[in-house]
Amino acid sequence: MVVDLDKYLKQDKDYYIAIGLEGSANKLGVGIIKHSKGLLSNVNKAKVLSNVRDTYITPPGEGFLPRDTARHHRNWVVRIIKKAIKDANINKFDIDVICFTQGPGMGAPLQSVVIAARTISQIWQIPLVGVNHCIGHIEMGREITGALNPVVLYVSGGNTQVIAYSKNRYRIFGETLDIAIGNCLDRFARTLKISNDPAPGYNIEQLAKKGKHLVNLPYTVKGMDMSMSGILAYIDQLAKDMFGIQKKQLKDEESGEFITKEDLCFSLQEILFSMLVEITERALAHVNSNQVLIVGGVGSNERLQEMMKLMIQDRKNGQIFATDERFCIDNGIMIAHAGLLQYRTGGIIKDLKDTVCTQRFRTDEVYIAWRDD
Amino acid sequence: MTESLISTLEDKIPNIKLNCISQGAEALVFESDTHPYYNDSKNCIIKYRPSKPYRHPKIDLQITKQRTIGEVKFMYKLCKLGIPCPNIITTDFPNGIIWMEFIGYKLENNEISSFKNWLWYLEKNGNDHDPLKKEVEFVCIKVGELIGKLHLNDMIHGDLTSSNMILVQDDVPHLIDFGLSSFSGLPEDKAVDLYVLERAIMSTHSVYAESYNRWLLKGYQQGYTNKSKYKEVIKRLEDVRLRGRKRSMLG
Amino acid sequence: MRLVPTAEYNAPDIESHKFEPSDGPHTTYGKTTQISDIVIKAGGEDRDKPTDHNDTPLGNLRAELTTLQDQINIFLTDRMNLEKDNKNQEADIERRLLDEGVDEDESE
Q1: Which CATH number fits domain A15-140+330-365: 3.30.70.1450, 3.30.420.40, 1.10.10.10, 3.10.20.30?
Q2: Cβ A58–C39 below 8 Å, yes or no?
Q3: I need a surface site. Which of A263, B110, B155, B195 has the fewest CB within 10 A?
Q4: Which residues in chain A have their CB less than 8 angstroms from residue B55's CB?
Q5: A147-327 adopts what CATH topology?
Q6: Whole-number mean pLDDT of chain C?
């Protein structure tokens, strides 16, 4: 049986256009996508018409507060929507569906974006679709890379999950037992007072490239799950001892050289990414798969991609798929794409009451009607 | 590719016939009809932890050694307690090699008789092999009992999934794969051990997970004969589950 | 055409409270919707200021809404503070009862 994706195609039209609004964390993104009718395949790919993003950036040492992030989204959303429509060069009345992130994420920013979605839906008389942020990442990753049925490593500021598809759901095989990987890196960046521009994780990555000495850190994998809060507490303490009032300097055992900020970033990345790659490999072995797709903001880290590649090379017919920062980092286009798939299988919201956002929205709660494998 | 990994083992133990039967996440598992010191013997299993090129060499060395030694220690203790697992034949820590007794049999679909493969076989082959029949309940309870006994002795498996249990003839489950094992009396560690299994069952056997998990916990209660400690673990398990569901997704 | 936003707040302990923007002038710069002090103190700058409103029905609605939002925020913050004060007083009585052994009758 093949899923019919054209039951809701408008008369006299042989394509669909969707606009997607994303604002679950500190990025505000609006994207417009086009699907031609029929099943998506490598000869009938989704077409990105525009993909605009603006990031709320805080001073070094500060995280982003929900109310300021929400304010950023509120004050920029109209300008970003206008730009996305202009870049796409379409008439707004040609849009079939307005897609927005319904969760998971931070409450206040989610709410400020859904208000924009509701408003344009009512002014333009276009239906709404609520999208799970994680599903957005997965579907966009599959579409861009052509990975058919991969094990997905989803790594971002708020999420760390190893996911595989089975029977119409993206099921979570492994995940963090406490904090998310991006959160762990961001918090360490704050301890070191590293700049948040363009992103704290990116700046840690650059520092790590200059690191040489590995500092001993705990390694905490539990089955296909992992835990990071203990590692963060440990390295945070090291950093405070080294750069605080005490100036307690630490030496590398072999070379006798002093441990630097760069070495700490390097060590943290090495240990955390080893754990990520290991739980991904565990999931691969468990579900007998040989494809890996990395999505989410941390997925654009080159060292993580390199390590994953080295792992997959040692597996039979192993393949790795990753996207670049346009699609890895939160964006509107992925919401438009996943939302459009949902629209094409009848998933529109019929009552405004059902547009309420939720901070906790698990990946496996969504019924994937557009897949039948 | 796997071939190059296999050849690294062939260099370490030459002239031994090796048949790779599975590539797990951290180890390659081989079947061999050559026993290291008996001439006439049943087949044995050689578990080999190759070096992982993605890891920093320091991390790699530490993990390989720690896990190989940890696994052997754990199996030795299980053997002393009479908890079913394969017997160890010999070990080579620096090279990450463990020789052990072969257990299990081939299912009708030619897969090895792990708990997972056995359940999958029943789940796929519909009616005459009803996945909810008495035999499945019996095996789930047996598996639960086994884990209960493990925890009673303050032993934590660390990677409980349906792949890490092998059924031998007459459906007696044996535990395998102790690379992440540890010794701990804390209810928290036992609860996380159970939670990891519960989640693995949910994602691997989603349709029947509820029944399987119920039966597993029933067996666990039977195996964990220290009632007050058992209750502590179950209470903690509820906390761990809640933590999982309520985990903040915030950046 | 003028679009006028209004709001109404109801709670069991007070009479219903109605909010209406006054005659104006109204702007999109709300008193209660500024960036947090923390950000400014940490050396950040506010690059997320709202744009000015246009002189159209929707644009004017936007400005009047900002005024209305200020009124609501101030009202709700006052109510929250009042509630906090009450709680603190209760907690204080409880603390004195427990820690200082003050008799309940005396404290009244």
Answers
A1: 3.30.420.40
A2: yes
A3: B110
A4: 270, 274, 307
A5: Nucleotidyltransferase; domain 5 (3.30.420)
A6: 86
